Amino acid sequence: MTARPVLYSFRRCPYAMRARLALLASGVECEIREVRLAAKPASMLRASPKATVPVLIPPDHTVIDESLDIMRWALGQHDPWHWLANIRHDLIARNDGPFKYHLDRYKYASRYQSDPAFHRAGALGILAGIEAALQAGCFLHGKQPGLTDAAIAPFVRQFAATDPDWFASVPLPRLQEWLRAFLMLPLFGRAMCRLAPWQEGDAPVLLH
């Protein structure tokens, strides 16, 4: 039997979420191991000493521990919905850099001892760029979602959920509809399935 890739994941992590989305979109059969962050599995730490999710171990036993690299690997195996076409690398870079910086300091202001209003405004300015990009279609890849949407939406979801009433009031109608549409995709529902934390010796659980 051909070995399956193994994904160490954590449902609430946006980096892990986008890896799960790409694996599901690719149709690559994958074993998923949900991680409890307070007790990370020794096998994951041996594979990736940086100790952050997601971590993918493909059948050749190499280790991929960057979420975008996992997305590219999965879709490089099979890309039935053409997620690799027309990737907006500029939008992903702004999401992973300045937007994530502001998101953390808005959502976790007490942890960072930051001014949440300042960082909310900074993040909102970056989201205005997504609003402008959505003039060309319902999704950032046009009529259908692609890698760019899947790479960014989990982070915008966290931002929106921090204060949903306020987010609903901001004048970014295309962005709000884009997020609603993405979160309603059956693919997203499958990616967000709840799993018990994995322990050594557990029967394999497949991401499907």
UniProtKB/TrEMBL annotation:
One of its GO terms (molecular function) is transferase activity. Residues 3-82 form the GST N-terminal domain. SUPFAM superfamilies: GST C-terminal domain-like, Thioredoxin-like. One of its GO terms (cellular component) is cytoplasm. Keywords: Transferase. Signal peptide: none annotated. Gene3D superfamilies: 1.20.1050.10, Glutaredoxin. PROSITE patterns: GST_NTER. This is Glutathione S-transferase.
